[in-house]
Amino acid sequence: MAYFPGRGVRGAGPLPTALAYDPSNVFARILRREIPARLLHEDEHCVAFHDVAPQAPLHVLVIPRKALAGLGDAGSDDAVLLGHLLLVGRAVAERLGHPSARYIVNHGAPSGQSVFHLHVHVLAGRPLAWPPG
């Protein structure tokens, strides 16, 4: 599998199924500043903040400003954005003293996605078992 700028992803097989986006989801409300969050990073593309129900000593969520319900809504034109979310997650974890972390993107309820706004979980600060779940 490879990403080719301007041509998309080759060899990836079918893309995940798109999900319905609800603009009243909690992350959209955080982006609109309707509800508070403990912000760690903010730029024109994304926001990172502490998870309210942490599963590790460090549990950060990185969300795009773009309204994407899940990974299946992202197209090849979102490749730079998706990479940016991961790089921001890494930078935040490192800034908080965690050079090693797990990065998770769930897609759809069966995978554990409970808020249907694309987000990256960044977990660190304790041993993380494999396989997860």
Give a verbal description of the structure.
- The chain has 133 residues and is α+β, with helices and mostly antiparallel strands.
- It has a single domain, classed as HIT family, subunit A (2-Layer Sandwich), CATH 3.30.428.
- Helices cover 17% and strands 23% of the residues.
- It has two helices and seven strands.
- It is globular and about 35 Å long.
- Mean pLDDT is 90; it is low at 1-7.
What is the compact description of this entry?
It is built from two helices and seven strands, in the order E-E-H-E-E-E-H-E-E. It is an alpha+beta fold and 133 residues long.
Uncertain spans: 1-7
* Basic shape: globular
Q: How many separate domains make up the residues?
A: 1
Tell me the CATH superfamily: HIT-like
CATH class: Alpha Beta
Looking at this protein, list some descriptive labels.
alpha+beta; two-stranded antiparallel sheet; 133 residues; HIT family, subunit A; disordered N terminus; 2 helices
Give the secondary structure arrangement, pairings included.
Layout: E1 2-4, E2 8-10, H1 26-31, E3 39-42, E4 46-50, E5 58-64, H2 79-95, E6 102-104, E7 120-124
Antiparallel strand pairs: 1-2, 3-4, 4-5, 5-7, 6-7
